[in-house]
Amino acid sequence: MRIDVLTIFPRLFETVFSWGVISRAIEREIIFFRAIDIRDFTEDRHRTTDDYPFGGGSGLVMKAEPILKAVESLSDEGTKPYVIYASPQGKAFDNNKAQELSRLESIAFICGRYEGIDERVMNVVDEELSVGDFVLSGGEVPAMLMIEAISRFVPGVVGDMESVINDSFFSELLDHPHYTRPRELNGMKVPDELLSGNHEMIEIYRRIESLKRTMERRPDVFLKHDFDLTDKKALLALFKELKRDAE
Ligand code: SAM
Question: Residues 185, 153: contact at Cβ < 8 Å?
Answer without folding.
Answer: no
